[in-house]
Amino acid sequence: MPWNTLSSFALVIATLVAVPANADVRPYPSNFSIREIQTNGTMLHVRIGGSGPAVVLLHGFADTGDMWEPLAATLASDHMVIVPDLRGMGLSTVPGGGFEKKNQAKDIAGVLDTLHVARADIVGHNIGNMVAFAFAERYPERTTRLVMMDAPVPGIGPWDDILKSPLLWHFRFGGPDMERLVAGRERIYLDRFWNDFAADPAKFDEKSRAHYADLYAKPGRMHAGFAQFAAFDQDVIDNRKAVGRGRLQMPVLAIGGDHSLGSTMAYIMRFAADNVREVVVKDSGHWLMEEQPKATIAAIVNFLSGASAVNPRALSVAEMGTLAKNEAGAGTSGVEGIQTIVLSGDPAKAGPYAIQLKVPAHTNIAAHTHRDNRFGMVVSGEWHFGYGQTANAAATTALGPGGFYTEPAGMAHFAFTGDQPTIVYITGQGPSDTNYVSTARH
Asked: Which CATH number belongs to the domain containing residue 148 in this structure?
C-alpha cells in the first residue's frame, strides 16, 4: 500500500480539456475542465466535470488524480465530479508541510468552498483513503456518503497489527538519505509498489507506469510522498481523538481486493462507523482501478446511487437480540454452548460474512483450521488465543476487549475462555468451514 500532495499562483479558471501530463494515460473527457485552486495555504490541481450531486475522488501514493478517469467519466453523467491532485502530488504545488490528513481534509474543504459545493460524496483510495476518512470525521455535515478503498486508516482498528507486516516497510522509509537513494530511480522505487501490491502486476500497464514515474520524478514530488507517510504518527493521534468524539453515521462503502485487504477493509471501518457495507473485488490486489476497473466502478456507482442500501442505521442492543441465534454452524468451532449470530452474509456461501460468537466461561476450543482467512476482535470478556497443532494454554495470548487477531487460512489455532463469558466478532470470506486438527490438550 502506498501515497500523495500540490501548486501556487493565483486562482486560474480554465476551460481546458483535462489532459494528463502524458498522452499514454487516457485523457479526461472534453466536458472536464482544469482549475488550479488556492486552498489552505497551497494550490491544488483540480479536474472538474459533469453536473448534479458532487462527488470528490481522492487518489493515493504512486498515482495521481489521473487514476480516476474511467470512474470520473462514468459519474459525470449525473454528478459534479471533482478530482484533485493531493497536496504535493501530481501537478499540485509542493508546500513545506501540512501533510497530516486532518489538514489535507481542510485542503479539500477549501476546494469545495471555492466551487460553492456544500456537501459531497467522498471516495478515497490509498493515502486518499486516509484523507477521505479525515474529511468525514472533520466535516460529517458535508459528507453524504463515504467510499474507502483498500488501505488501512492510521489509528483505527487493527492499525498496530497491520504495521507489523514486512510488506509495509515503506511506512518508515523517508528522510534526506532515502530521498537521495531514490532520486533518479523513481521508477525502480514505484515499480515495487505496483508489483508487490497487485494480484497480477501486468494489470498495471507500462504506459501508466511511465506516466506516473515521470510525474513523481518532478522536483519535490517524492519528498511530498515521503511526507505523507511521515505524518502517520500524528494521523493516529488525530483519528483516535475524532472517533472518541463520535462514530461516523453516514453510509460507508468499504472495498477491498481479494488479494489485498479484502473484507478487512470493512472490518477496519466498523471500528469507526455504524453503517458499513462491504464489497470484496475478485482477482484484484490493491490497485482496484487498474486491476478490476469494471467491477470497482460498478460497486461505487451502485453505492452512490443508493440502489444498494446499506443498513440505514446501526442495530440497537435490543435489535441485536432479535437476530437469528444458532448453534455452531459453518465456520464455527462446533463446541456445545457457543451461540452464533450471523451479522451479515452467510459463512456457508461465497462472499463476505460477519459473525458474533458468544462463548461461555471455561470453554475449550481444540486446534482446528478454516479454509478462509478470518479476522477476529474481542468485544467483551477475555479470549485466550493461540496457534499450533495441539491446544496449549501456555501458548495462548490473553486478549481483552478490542483485542485483534487473525486466523490465516489453513493455520491451526485454538482458544479458551476463563472465568467469564466472552463475545468475539469474526469476519471472513465464505464459504468457510472447520476442520479439527487434534482434540488433545496439554
From this structure: 3.40.50.1820
Burial 382-421 (b: 16+ CB within 10 A, else e): bbbbbbeebbbeeebeebeeebbbebeeeebbbbbbeeeb
Q: Of the residues 305, 326, 345, which one is the last residue of a structural domain?
A: 305
Grid cell in block for residue 260: 489485498
- Overall domain count for the chain: 2
Mean pLDDT of the chain: 85
- Residue 148 has φ and ψ, to the nearest 5°, of -115, 125
**pLDDT for 96:** 92
Residue 115, classified by CB atoms within 10 Å of its CB into exposed (0-12), middle (13-18) or buried (19+), is: middle
Q: Assess whether 80 and 205 both reside in one domain.
A: yes
**pLDDT in the model for residue 5:** 30
Q: Which of 272, 305, 338 is the last residue of a domain?
A: 305
Task: Tell me how far apart the alpha carbons of residues 226 and 136 are, in angstroms, rounded to a whole number.
Answer: 24
336 or 182, which is more confident: 182
Please tell me whether residues 106 and 181 are part of one structural domain.
Answer: yes
User: Smallest Cα–Cα separation from 433: which of 368, 337, 344, 363?
Assistant: 368
Q: Is 183 within the bounds of a domain? A: yes
Fill in the DSSP letter of residue 441. Answer: B
Q: Element (H or E) spanning 132, and its range? A: helix 127-138
327 and 300 share one domain: no
Helix (H, G, I), strand (E, B) or coil at 167: helix
Strands 120-125 and 54-58: parallel
Question: Is residue 2 assigned to a domain?
Answer: no
The answer to whether the CB of 384 falls within 8 A of the CB of 415 is: yes
Overall pTM > 0.90: no
Domain residues for the domain of 173 are 12-305
